[in-house]
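Pasting as-is:
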Amino acid sequence: MNAVWNLLLATGYLKVHKTEAEPFDDEINAEEAVQYPLALTNLEVKRMFRKMISEWFNDNTRIYYNEFINSLLNDNIRKMNTFMNRVALNTFSSFDSGNKPSEQAEPERFYHGFVLGMVVNLADTYKVRSNRESGFGRYDVMLEPLDRNKKAFIFEFKVLDPDEDEITLEDTLANAHAQIEEKQYEAELISEGFLPKQIRKYGFAFKGKTCLIG
């Protein structure tokens, strides 16, 4: 996170607005007590950022977002796959998603964060949880409806891994579902009174810019 601010400062998009120094008894750590609030350099830079951020959230983005959420809530897996593959092709870069499940690229975390960012706006009707313990492991994402009569959702994200004998995205998807069942991720929802028929378990299998949801 600090690298981003340092880059924007070094390239002239941000400037030091003022220097704030707090009294510090320990001279060795005195430098840590100095803070530098930053500001946009000028009006042109402000307009550039305003235009760029507005384009991130233009009407097309809202349409795509609503399309995915509606498909999810209506059990339309085909449209969920269409949306995710369209967005992945047009938006994801190899740097974002990586080419293999490695500690360096951490592509699963990227996909996890992307989908979590889309569903978090359901917080007014769902409890949105991420990386919480349930059963014998930690699920990736869980959506627990505030209305007990509605569906609940469990998401597991996996990147195709040849080391796990995965050749196709179908293999990866099968392993995602196997993990959901073996780790009994639904235990938390069952304990809250949800029936098994209310719980939707989705695996998200990825390979670069290609996705399979099921």
